[in-house]
Write a structure and sequence with these properties.
CATH class: Alpha Beta
CATH architecture: 3-Layer(aba) Sandwich
Number of strands: 4
Largest sheet: 4 strands, parallel
Distance between the termini: 52 Å
Strand order of the largest sheet: 2-1-3-4
Number of domains: 1
Length: 130
């Protein structure tokens, strides 16, 4: 019996959908994520990315308790976006704990992970001494 992920991959293939890329990274890089969205879309890919920047003021997350609950829901939603994606693009020159967890999750699912700044890849072997 195929797994849900295998059924999703088959359905995407049968429907002729273009590749789906999930953009990950710190929300401090929202402008860079928007630029990556534009470039990936122009290249013919469907893009999913964070839709909320909890560091920017907004009425939806102005209450600290509501913001904490929303953060949990958004993290779950982003993991769903990673499951939906065929690959992940990590944007920015900094990898925090949340992004590191997203990279590990994507790799555990066998998703290829690209980086706008490959030097920050937590799975990259350290540079050889000179």
């Amino acid at each position: 019996m195929p797994t849900p992920e295998e059924r999703l991959a088959e359905a995407k293939q049968l429907s002729g959908l273009p590749p789906v890329v999930a953009i990950c990274g710190s929300t401090r890089f929202m402008a860079e994520m928007n630029e990556a969205d534009l470039r990936e879309t122009e290249a013919g890919r469907i893009v999913v990315k964070p839709g909320c920047d909890l560091n920017a003021p907004h009425a939806l997350w102005s209450d600290p308790d509501e913001a904490a609950a929303l953060k949990i829901r958004l993290d779950e939603l982003h993991r769903a976006k990673i499951r939906l994606a065929d690959e992940v693009l990590v944007v920015g020159d900094y990898i925090g704990d949340s992004t590191r967890a997203e990279i590990a999750y994507a790799r555990s699912l066998g998703r290829p992970v690209r980086f706008t700044h490959p030097e920050v890849d937590p799975g990259r072997p350290p540079a050889a001494p000179r």
